[in-house]
Amino acid sequence: MLFPTRRTFLTAATASLAAGRYVSAQNPPISTTKLDENLYLLGGSGCNVVAHTGSDGVVLVDGGLAQNAAALAQAVAALPNSSPVRTLFNTHWHPEQTGSNQALGMVGVTIIAHENTRLWLQQTITWPWNGQKFQKLPKIAQPNKTFYDKGALDSGIRYGYISDAAHTDGDLYVYFPQQNVLAVGDAAYGKGWPVVDWWTGGWIGGIVGGLQRVQSVANKDTKIVPAQGPVLSFSDIAAQLEMYGTIYDRLNQMLNKGHSPTEGVAAKPAKEFEAKMGNPDEFIRRSFESLWAYLSPDA
Ligand SMILES: [Zn+2]
Questions:
Q1: Which of 41, 30, 25, 37 is nearest to 71 (CA)?
Q2: Between the CA of residue 209 and those of 127, 216, 244, 255, what are the distances in Å?
Q3: Left, alpha or beta for 221 (phi > 0: left; psi -120 to 50: alpha)?
Q4: What spatial distance separates the first Cα and last Cα of the chain, rounded to whole Å?
Q5: How far is ligand 1, taken at its centre, from the CA of residue 257, in Å?
Q6: Where would I find the H helices in the chain?
């Protein structure tokens, strides 16, 4: 997956907003799906975006890539009973989640994130495995309301920290009790193998722990919205937990025998899942590295 620089996107999105028009040539169509009363799933901006409409303004979970911020804003404005966005959640710091931060921060929207997410957005990050660089966000685009454990909005919408470090060390969930919908960002994946961003805290053990936490927040009828791919059911989460638990155990055994990430990949510890999930090599390598990073923080 490509991650062009955040600043490039922000500049483009802000310029188009400031000019009072939208750059349609590069904006993708945003799909809108009704999840339940007052709750919509917007696709096509870089990640799944959940939009809640109500008398106290629109609440968004994640904001897509900055290059798509203007298109996303248009789609939100076109929702039934739409009103100005008042609250934006960042499920974690990645560009797919934080691309609307600048445009919405400039108009005074409350941007809620875990404190660790704010800390990552304050610094320029370079992934060691591919050299990918992410510019820090300007102050106006940084989360302006952070938390450590959990919280709730006046409307009853609840949010909390996924402290297992499933994807980063700043993952959060947002739960809509009236609709029984749970948005979990990249703590669960709807398609393909997850990105294991161990540089900012994610690890394979956290994927397992995060899925268990999702189960504990959800119930059998909850619709679970990942950042990527289709909406998941409670049993989908159980199946993922089984799979990642199996892979985690195998990698742990190899690590304990002193094997390297390359040997870990060669051993094909995800072989029975490849037909459904695709080539796992990148995921296995990052997962193996994540065990090193997690288990030997001073290495
Ligand atoms: Zn992510």
A1: 30
A2: 23, 11, 10, 19
A3: alpha
A4: 28
A5: 31
A6: 6-18, 69-77, 95-98, 101-106, 115-121, 204-217, 234-256, 261-266, 274-277, 281-295
45 CA distance to ligand 1 middle (Å):
14
| Mean pLDDT to the nearest integer, 290-296 | 85
- Give distance in angstroms: CA of 66 to centre of ligand 1: 14
- In this structure, what token pair is assigned to residue 72? 């996303």
Q: Which residues crowd ion ligand 1, with CB under 5 Å?
A: 94, 186
3-state secondary structure of 3: coil
Residue type, 98: T
Backbone angles phi, psi at 249, to 5 degrees: -60, -45
| Residue 46 CB neighbour total at 10 angstroms | 28
Give residue 9 CA to ligand 1 midpoint distance, Å: 17
pLDDT digits (tens, 9 = 90+) for 197-251: 999 999 999 999 999 999 999 999 999 999 999 999 999 999 999 999 999 999 9
Beta pairing partners, 50: 41, 61
DSSP 8-state symbol, 48: -
Cα gap 208→14, rounded to integer Å: 38
Running DSSP on this structure, what letter comes out for residue 192? S
pTM of the complete model beyond 0.85: yes
Distance from C-alpha of 8 to C-alpha of 87, rounded to nearest angstrom = 24
**C-alpha of residue 135 to centroid of ligand 1, in Å:** 15
Token pair of 106, please? 């400039």
Ligand 1 midpoint to CA 186 (Å): 5
Helices (H) and strands (E) in the chain, counts: 10, 14
Among the listed residues 100, 95, 125, 120, the one whose alpha carbon sits nearest the alpha carbon of residue 111: 100
Q: How far apart are CA 293 and CA 36, in angstroms?
A: 41
